[in-house]
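Please complete every field before forwarding. Incomplete forms are returned to the sender.

SECTION A: IDENTIFIERS
Entry label: holo-315
Bound molecule: S-adenosylmethionine
Molecule representation: SMILES string

SECTION B: INPUTS
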Amino acid sequence: MCFTSREPKIGFADLEADGSAIEHVPVLANTLAEQINLLPDGVMVDATIGHGGHSFLFGEKLGPEGVIVGLDVDENSIRRAQLKLKDLACKVILLNSNFSCISEQVHKQGIEKVDFILADLGLCSGQLADSQRGLSFLVDMPLDMRIDKRLKRTAADIINETDEKTLADLIYRFGEDRASRRIARFIVEHRRRQRIITTGQLAAIVCRALGRSGRKSRIHPATRTFQALRIAVNNELENLEKLLASAPDLLNKNGYIAVISYHSLEDRLVKLNFKENQRQNTYNIITKRPLVPSREEIAANRRARSAKLRIAQRY
Ligand SMILES: C[S@@+](CC[C@H](N)C(=O)[O-])C[C@H]1O[C@@H](n2cnc3c(N)ncnc32)[C@H](O)[C@@H]1O
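SECTION C: PREDICTED COMPLEX
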């Protein structure tokens, strides 16, 4: 389903309550800028515009003939990007849309091909802090997890309505948690007594299920279960596959695609897609190995720690 809407008009005051006023620092921005050569009349699609940090860097290189098409499923991100990009010389088109529909959205703007597609996957800093979004296990919030509020199914719906085996498979497949069966059993036992409606409840159940082994781990015991649910609620891998499949036809000759991913499931999809396109003589892979942030960048921005950047160029 491809929903779209044009950017809403707002001011900064509207951004305060929902976490989107929190500054998002673009990851691997300098590395990306060094690798991508965009001419002043270039056309770029920022498939995950977020707060517009990456687009701003490229936008500064574009002249009045240049175009940025920015997509985001989160209306708050679109609003934030609108403020960030408002003084650029180039044309900026912001669309509240899923990148799974990238070609359709770009073509609707009368643009046939583009010079650069960027996808910086995952979340903006403010989205994790948003008390209504239910993405954090560190603060008790409604168990929602929809980045796009137009989606129907929340994480609470999945947790309370999915049978035990399917739930275990989901936690294993999208969270890569080897204790998925035990976690699913604890969830199902709990929901027989009481519906699970907050992130705090779910985090506590996962911690109980993992007991001691969870406490020894470097990451919070609920990290993988939360990742799995977020991926399922937002169809993240399916959307990424659609974006990757659309890219070759949308790119001009010598155009670039760059993807920054934050977990191995996403990175694997990107790597395999680029390799397959290279095999078919569609792409030249620029990054033989993924580019990762320096120690300094990670020290300054913890969100960057798991980032991997892969770039390919259209033949
Ligand atoms: C990491 S942030 C991007 C930050 C941006 N590069 C910047 O510099 O400000 C990721 C953004 O992608 C959006 N997003 C996630 N999945 C999406 C999808 N399938 N289609 C469009 N936007 C998506 C999120 O709402 C979020 O705003």
